[in-house]
Amino acid sequence: MFKKGFLANFKPDYFADSIYDIDGEWLAAKNINAMIIDVDNTIMARGERLPDDKLRLWVSGLRDSGIKLLVISNNWTDRVKRIAGHLELPLLAPAAKPLGPAYKIAIGRLGVAAAEIAIIGDQLFTDVLGGNRVGIRTILVAPISEVDLIHTKALRVFERILLKRLSGQLLVEGRWKNI
Ligand SMILES: [Mg+2]
What we know:
The protein is built from seven helices and eight strands; from the N terminus they run H-E-H-E-H-E-H-E-H-E-H-E-H-E-E. It is of the alpha/beta class. The model has no long low-confidence stretch (mean pLDDT 88). Magnesium ion (MG) is lined by residues 38, 40-42, 121-123.
C-alpha cells in the first residue's frame, strides 16, 4: 500500500506508555542528551491548567540528570506559556509541527547535535513525523486522555492503521500492547 520510505517517516524510534517510563538513566543508555517535549496529551491532558507535583518531579529529575529540555507546542495560548513557566522550561510555540523550521530552531536552542536529541509526543502526524524529518529520534507515548481537537480525532483513525503496520503494537485503553 505504501512505499517503504514513506512509511518510515511515521515510525517512532521508541514507544512508551507514558512520559513516566522515561528517565535520565533510560535516556543516557541511548545517548540522548536533550529532549523536545510536546504539551497536550503528552505531559498534560488537553485543557488541564497547571502541572502537578508528579510532572514537576519528572522534569526536575531529568534536569538533574543533565538532560536539556525544551517544550514545543502548536498552541500559542497563555495556558501553554503558564505551563512552561511553572516547569521553568523554555517554550517554542506556535511550532506548526510537523513542519521543519520550528524543529530546527529547537535543535539550535538546545545546542546539542541532532543525533543526541529526541522528541517525545503523542501524535504520529505532528511530533513523530516532524522529528523524523529533521533527523532526531522520536518517542511516541500513549495520549493521556481521549480528549482531542476535532482534526486530531480524525488523524487518530489513520494513526491506528499506521501503528499496526509500523510497530506490531496497538494502543489499548491508553497503553501500548504487543500484538
Ligand atoms: Mg500532543
